[in-house]
Design brief:
Layout: E1 7-9, H1 11-24, H2 29-44, H3 55-63, E2 74-79, E3 82-91, H4 92-110, E4 112-121, H5 127-135, E5 139-144, E6 165-169, E7 177-181, H6 188-197, E8 206-207, E9 213-214, H7 217-221, E10 225-226, H8 232-247, E11 269-277, H9 287-300, H10 309-321, E12 323-325, H11 327-338
Helix pairs in contact: 1-2, 1-11
The chain binds NADPH dihydro-nicotinamide-adenine-dinucleotide phosphate and pyrrole-2-carboxylate (PYC).
InterPro entries: Mal/L-sulf/L-lact_DH-like_ah (IPR043144), Mal/L-sulf/L-lact_DH-like_NADP (IPR043143), Mal/L-sulfo/L-lacto_DH-like_sf (IPR036111), Malate/L-lactate_DH-like (IPR003767)
EC number: 1.5.1.21
Keywords: Oxidoreductase
Length: 339
């Protein structure tokens, strides 16, 4: 049973609290606002594995000197439909926002454009990166690689990150259709949450340090590894994410960066890739209606809900009641902000 929340904060108050923590720990005001809004949005929508749960990890990484919270990304215009960004060892979200105006200009000009971010840290959910494009009428897909903790299908050594893929599309009469999913059987954040809570995982999520299947999250975290979702099929998606996020952008593969000299480092130093499309170029002026139509068909066929529905229900409740926090978590955030 979920414990009732002790405290409810408005989105603005949570952003202000998180921004203060980021600034205290060496992040520039501009980057701190972006990261705080991102993290508060995750908490508001119930993306718990990437909400305030991550704040201690952000702080730890910043204090280890592994990530540069003050990095100023360098945006390069490298082709009619290609934007590249060197995040300079900072977080990807400010890099993406710095490149966004040029990217949108190119999408409007060409119907499609890509964004390749390198030398960047991503420690959050991916849906906040794509959903705003769909809110503006574009179709967007993004991938990011992380830290090697997933063994290839049938393999023994972790090569892939948990490598999520997020997709967003406008939908007539409703919020954009958005899905955001790891290519591992479970996100690393959820393994950490299960380990803390003392819960077992479902079978098929990971292996222990000897490569034996285990449902024990602690055994996975202690030298074990995760599995790709769906066997060889999820494996290929994880591999594609490495290719797009690292090989194509000039970033590191998930197993390539060395953070051993930065005790406490937790944020993966990799790359991120986006494709953004103007659906009007499809010559179909009822695109958003068609998307709504296929979504309706799926529900009529018996699927209980669509991806994103849970987030929107949680968001609506948070907008009415405030974002629920336990007293313990609120105290931890206050301590990070005040010390
Ligand atoms: P989930 O398996 O919880 O959800 C994946 C997607 O499926 C979501 O869009 C979700 O929608 C949808 N969904 C879940 N259950 C159902 C259902 N019963 N019917 C229809 N749709 C459903 O996500 P993951 O555990 O794979 O990933 C969790 C988060 O971790 C993601 O936000 C991801 O970006 C993040 N992550 C980040 C990484 C990084 O490197 N930064 C690495 C790996 C993961 P809904 O949200 O509405 O439930
Ligand atoms: O939950 O797998 C995860 C993850 C990796 C990096 C950030 N989140």
């Amino acid at each position: 049973m979920t414990k009732a929340a002790d405290i409810h904060l408005s989105y603005a108050d949570l952003v202000a609290l998180l921004q203060k923590i980021f600034v205290k720990n060496g992040v520039s005001e501009n980057n701190a606002k972006i990261l705080a809004e991102n993290c508060a949005s995750c908490e508001r929508d119930g993306s718990i594995s990437h909400g305030i749960f991550r704040m201690a990890g952000y702080v730890s990484s910043l204090n280890s000197g592994w990530v540069d919270g003050k990095a100023v990304p360098e945006v390069e215009d490298v082709g009619p439909a290609f934007v590249r960004v060197d995040a300079k060892g900072g977080f990807t979200q400010p890099a993406m926002l710095a490149a966004r105006p040029l990217l949108i200009e190119k999408v409007r000009q060409n119907g499609v454009a890509v964004l390749a971010i390198r030398r960047s840290h991503h420690f959050s959910a991916l849906w906040p990166d794509v959903e705003p494009f769909a809110d503006e009428g574009f179709v967007a897909l993004s991938v990011v690689n992380s830290m090697a903790c997933v063994v290839p299908h049938g393999g023994k050594t972790a090569v892939f990150g948990t490598n999520p893929v997020a997709f967003a599309s406008p939908r007539a009469g409703a919020a954009p259709f958005v899905f955001d999913q790891a290519s591992s059987a479970i996100a690393h954040g959820d393994v950490q949450i299960a380990a803390r809570a003392g819960h077992e995982l479902k079978p098929g999520m990971g292996v222990d340090r000897d490569g034996q299947p285990t449902n024990d999250p602690k055994a996975i975290l202690d030298g074990g590894a995760l599995l790709p979702f769906g066997g060889h099929k999820g494996n290929s998606i994880a591999l594609m994410v490495e290719i797009l996020s690292a090989a194509l952008t000039g970033g590191y593969f998930s197993g390539e960066f060395d953070w051993s000299g930065h005790k406490g480092a937790q944020t993966p130093f990799t790359g991120q890739f986006f494709i953004v499309i103007d659906p009007a170029r499809g010559g179909n002026d009822v695109f958003a209606e068609r998307v709504a139509g296929i979504c309706d068909l799926v529900l009529e066929a018996g699927q209980e809900r669509l991806p994103g529905d849970r987030r929107h229900v949680t968001r609506a409740k948070a907008e009415t009641d405030g974002i629920p926090l336990s007293a313990e978590n609120y105290k931890k955030l206050k301590a990070l902000a005040d010390t």
